[in-house]
Design goal:
Number of helices: 2
CATH class of the domain at 424-546: Mainly Beta
Strand content: 25-35%
Number of strands: 37
Largest sheet: 10 strands, mixed
CATH superfamily of the domain at 424-546: Head decoration protein D
Distance between the termini: 197 Å
Oligomer: single chain
C-alpha cells in the first residue's frame, strides 16, 4: 500500500509507491514500503540533516524552513520559501538582497558596511565610511581642558581629518592629555562654543545660506549697511572703480557714473527732472531744477543767483524775463568779437519788442548805432560817420530794412543840434478858448493868450503852431488848454485874400491875417511875411515867416 507523505501544514508532498524511493520532491531520499536496502538511504538522510546539507551550493529541492550550511562562506542559512538567508546574521553580498522583509540584515562585502531593512529600504547602520576612503563620520569624544576637567565634544571627521568640533562650552584643551593634545594638533588650540572649523584645514568655510552672523570678515554685522531698510554710515562710502554706476530709484531712474575721471549724473526716466534743494531756516527751498521735459536749466522764482567769477554764454541768444535789469558795470560792450571794420554789423544797439500779441500797432522799436547813416544825412553806406538812430522796424522777415525814424523824448537834453525837422520856435501858453493851428493870437483875455479879433492889431503876439521845431514849456498842458504858440520861424498861418511871397502880413480879425500895404504897416502890427504866393481870395493856411518885420 502506497505512503501519502504530508508536510507540517498537512499539505501532500508526494504519494510514494511500495518498493520505491523519491529523490525529486525534497533533498532527502524518501523510502517506500518494502524498499530493499532502505538502511543506507535512511542513514544518509540522517547525515544530511546532521550536516544541514553542507555544500558549496544551495540544495536544489529545498522546501520552506529547510536549513543549509554554506560551505564557502561557513554560514548557516534557512529557506524562506523564496530564498536562503543567513540564520542569525546578515546576508553578505556585493548587491542589495531582493525580497527583503522587515528586520533583514545585509553586509555590503564591497564597501564593508552593515545595513538593516526597515520594511521599505535598506538603512546604513555603519560604518559610515566606505572601505578604503578613510574615516568620515561624526565621532563623540571626551577630552580634558587645561584645568583637568573632562569636556564632551563631537568631532567632525572627513577622510581621517578632524575638520570641525561641536561643543556646548568654550574651553582650552590640555596639552598633556592624549586626546586633547591630538585635538590641538588637529587645529583646535582653543575650542569655541558652538561649531568650530579647524585652523589647519586650508580655506575651511561654512558653505551655503546662513540665517544670521555675528561678524563678516571680522567686522561686526551691525557695522554693515543694509539694503532693505533705511540706514546710515559714519564712514566714507566709495566706488573706487572707473565705469562704476550708482543707481537710485525702483526703476533705476537716476544713475551716477564715473568714467575717465568724469562724473555723469543721468535722469533715465523720460521727462523727469533733477531738483536741487536746501534747508533754508527750516524750509525746503529749490535752488535749481534740470527740467527733463524741456531740456533746460531752471533757477527758482525766489532767491538770488550770484556768479562770483566771469559768466560766459556761448549760445546765440540770452533772454532776460525779469521786470527790471540792473547793471553795475559802467560799460556794456556790444560786438565784442568784431575784430575789424569789415566785420562790423550795420546796426548795433537796443531793441524793444512790441510782441505778436501786443495791442500796440507799432512795429518793434530800435535805438541803435547805424553804420550806414552818414554825416551828410544820407543813408548810403560808405559815407563818413554813422549815427545813433531811433526807428521803427520795417516789419516782415527783415525788420531792419525800410525802417522809419521815430521821435526821441527826454526831460532835459544837453547836446549840439545841427538840424530840426520843423522850422518854428514855439512855447505853450494857457488859452481862454479852443484855438486851431494857424490862428493869430494876442496876449490877454481871461488866460495868457486869446484869439486876435481886431484888424491891424498892434498887440499881435504869435500864431498857433502844429509841429514846432523846438517847443518850450512843453509840460505846461495839452494843445487844448495850452496851445503851442509859434514865436519865430516858418509856420502855417490862416491868410485871407491873395498875396505874393515877401509881402508883410498883419491881423485881419477873427484869428486870421492878411497882406498889408506899406502905409498900413507899423513896427508893432506886422506879424511876419509870406513865403509863398497866394492867389485865392478865401482863407487858407499859408506858409509864412513870423517874427520878421
Amino acid at each position: 500500500m502506497a505512503y501519502k507523505l504530508n508536510n507540517t501544514f498537512g499539505t501532500l508532498l508526494v504519494t510514494l509507491a511500495d518498493g520505491t524511493i523519491d529523490t525529486a520532491t525534497t533533498d532527502l531520499t524518501l523510502i517506500g514500503k518494502g524498499y530493499a536496502g532502505f538502511g543506507e538511504k535512511l542513514n544518509e538522510n540522517l547525515i544530511k540533516l546532521l550536516e544541514n546539507f553542507n555544500n558549496t551550493s544551495a540544495p536544489s529541492n529545498k522546501i520552506q524552513g529547510q536549513l543549509w550550511y554554506d560551505k564557502t562562506n561557513n554560514q548557516l542559512n534557512v529557506y524562506t520559501g523564496t530564498k536562503f538567508k543567513p540564520a542569525g546574521g546578515p546576508t553578505p553580498s556585493t548587491t542589495q538582497p531582493t525580497n527583503a522583509v522587515l528586520g533583514d540584515e545585509w553586509f555590503d562585502t564591497t564597501n564593508k558596511q552593515y545595513y538593516i531593512y526597515d520594511g521599505s529600504a535598506w538603512t546604513l547602520i555603519g560604518p559610515t565610511t566606505v572601505a578604503g576612503s578613510g574615516v568620515t563620520q561624526v565621532i563623540p569624544d571626551t577630552v580634558q581642558d587645561n584645568t583637568g576637567v573632562n569636556r564632551s565634544i563631537l568631532k567632525l571627521v572627513a577622510n581621517d581629518a578632524v575638520v570641525g568640533v561641536v561643543s556646548n562650552l568654550a574651553f582650552t584643551p590640555s596639552s598633556s592629555e592624549t586626546a586633547a593634545a591630538a585635538l590641538i594638533t588637529a587645529g583646535f588650540a582653543t575650542v569655541a562654543q558652538g561649531i568650530q572649523l579647524s585652523s589647519t584645514v586650508t580655506s575651511a568655510k561654512f558653505r551655503g545660506t546662513s540665517t544670521d552672523s555675528d561678524a563678516l570678515g571680522g567686522v561686526a554685522a551691525a557695522n554693515f549697511l543694509r539694503s532693505n531698510a533705511n540706514d546710515t554710515s559714519t564712514g566714507t562710502l566709495g566706488l573706487l572703480v572707473d565705469g562704476t554706476t550708482l543707481t537710485l530709484g525702483a526703476g533705476s531712474d537716476v544713475t551716477f557714473t564715473m568714467a575717465s575721471d568724469d562724473l555723469t549724473i543721468a535722469q533715465t526716466t523720460q521727462n523727469k527732472d533733477i531738483i536741487f534743494t536746501v534747508n533754508e531756516g527750516g524750509s525746503t527751498v529749490t535752488l535749481m531744477t534740470l527740467d527733463g521735459s524741456t531740456g533746460r536749466l531752471e533757477l527758482p522764482s525766489v532767491g538770488d543767483l550770484r556768479v562770483k567769477g566771469n559768466l560766459t554764454v556761448d549760445g546765440e541768444q540770452v533772454i532776460n524775463n525779469t521786470t527790471t535789469l540792473s547793471v553795475e558795470d559802467n560799460i556794456i560792450e556790444l560786438n565784442r568779437n568784431v575784430s575789424s571794420n569789415s566785420g562790423m554789423p550795420n546796426f548795433t544797439g537796443l531793441k524793444v519788442n512790441r510782441g505778436e500779441t501786443s495791442s500796440a500797432t507799432e512795429q518793434d522799436l530800435y535805438w541803435v548805432w547805424d553804420e550806414t547813416f552818414a554825416d551828410d544825412g544820407t543813408t548810403i553806406f560808405g559815407n563818413a560817420g554813422g549815427a545813433w538812430t531811433a526807428f521803427k522796424s520795417g516789419g516782415g522777415d527783415d525788420e531792419l530794412s525800410a525802417a522809419t525814424l521815430v521821435d526821441i523824448r527826454a526831460n532835459i537834453v544837453h547836446a549840439t543840434s545841427t538840424s530840426a525837422q520843423y522850422a518854428d520856435l514855439a512855447e505853450r501858453y494857457a488859452s481862454d478858448m479852443l484855438l486851431e493851428p494857424g490862428d493869430v493870437v494876442i496876449l490877454g483875455g481871461n488866460e495868457e493868450v486869446t484869439k486876435c479879433i481886431k484888424e491891424l492889431d498892434s498887440s499881435v503876439f504869435g500864431v498857433v503852431s502844429d509841429s514846432p521845431a523846438f517847443l518850450m514849456n512843453a509840460q505846461a498842458g495839452n494843445n487844448e488848454s495850452h496851445p503851442m504858440i509859434a514865436l519865430k520861424g516858418r509856420v502855417f498861418v490862416k491868410i485871407t485874400g491873395p498875396g505874393k511871397a515877401g509881402d508883410r502880413i498883419v491881423s485881419a480879425g477873427n484869428g486870421d491875417a492878411r497882406v498889408a500895404s506899406m502905409a498900413e504897416c507899423t513896427h508893432f502890427n506886422v506879424l511876419g511875411r509870406l513865403l509863398n504866393d497866394k492867389y485865392s481870395d478865401n482863407t487858407a493856411l499859408t506858409e509864412c515867416v513870423i517874427g520878421v518885420k
